[in-house]
Amino acid sequence: MDGIDCSGLVYAVFSTVGLKMPRVSWQQSEVGHEVEVTEILPGDLIFFVPDKGQAGYVSHTGIVTEVNGGQNIRFIHASSSRGVREDNLYSDYFKGRFVKALRPF
Questions:
Q1: Is 60 one of the catalytic residues?
Q2: Which terminus of the chain, N or C, has less C-beta within 10 A?
C-alpha cells in the first residue's frame, strides 16, 4: 500500500466508528447537511475544488479537527504528494478552493 488519499482517509475514519461513507470525495460531499462557515465544528467535513476561485467538481475533502476563532479552522486531510497532514482552512492555498462544509451525521 502506497498511502491513502483524502476520501480514503474520511472513509477509514468514519468506518472505525461504525459509520458508512461513500468512498469518493464528490459523493461524500452529498452526505449530511450543509453548515455555514461560522457554524463549523470539529467532525464536520469540508470540501474543495481543484482550482482557486473557480467553480468545479469537488476533488478534495478533510475532517475539521479544531475551531480556534474565525480565521483558524484546522482540518486533517490526505494528500497523495504530501501525506496525511493538518492545515488551516484559511491558508492561502485552501481558502480560495473551499466549496462547502457538511455535518455528515
A1: yes
A2: N
Range 82-91, long-range pairs (CB < 8 A, 24+ positions): 83/3, 84/4, 84/9, 87/62, 89/46
Whether pLDDT at 80 is above 80: no
**List 60, 75, 78, 101, catalytic entry:** 60
| Cell reading at 66 | 479544531
- Asked if 33 is an active-site residue, the reply is no
Q: Is 58 annotated as catalytic?
A: no
Cell 468512498 sits at which residue? 23
Judge whether 13 and 86 are in contact, CB under 8 Å.
no
pTM greater than 0.90? yes
Residues 6+ away with beta carbon under 8 Å from 34: 100, 101, 102
Catalytic residue of the set 59, 61, 73, 77? 77
